[in-house]
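Running this now, will post back.
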Amino acid sequence: MVLMESSQKLKIGDRAPAFSLSGTDGRIHSLKEFEQASAVVIFFMCNHCPYVLAKLPAMKKLYDTYRPRNVAFVGINANNNPDFPDDDFEHMKKFVSDNQIKFPYLFDESQGVARSYGAVCTPDPFIFDSGMRLAYHGRIDDALSPEAQPATPDLAFALDDILMGRMPSGGFKPSRGCSIKWRE
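Update: finished.
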């Protein structure tokens, strides 16, 4: 495991890069299908990372809380590296089933989507507003290690602001997690 902090490639106000990716549900999902959402949360994640596993309950709670408010959620796994077989597409299907994940979980087989967003770690969350413009990129909460307990739900605060028509305050607070396992 290589610890990384997210960095900013996309800037606030940039349009969400398009994608069309295979989901664990057997469907192809594209960014276009979420255009009617009030906001779109994209989690770059994987199956094996202890940081993702620690944040999974918070991610599921965010989904349960904000989905009724027309917020779309998407997980994208870019770890397509033969050295990490636990993150392959078949294991993604098992991960969704075992963890009862309700949002689409997509495989970025080429790793091009992660590169276009500037994702570098897992989890690495992005929120786009109803115009598909970046409104937040940063951490889920202030617990920066798997064993830490969060005190500040940064992503929930950002979603509340976005849904109220305000830009999230507080500036960029990087996420921390395992590095995306790039193929060379």
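DSSP finds four helices and ten strands in the chain. More later if anyone needs it.
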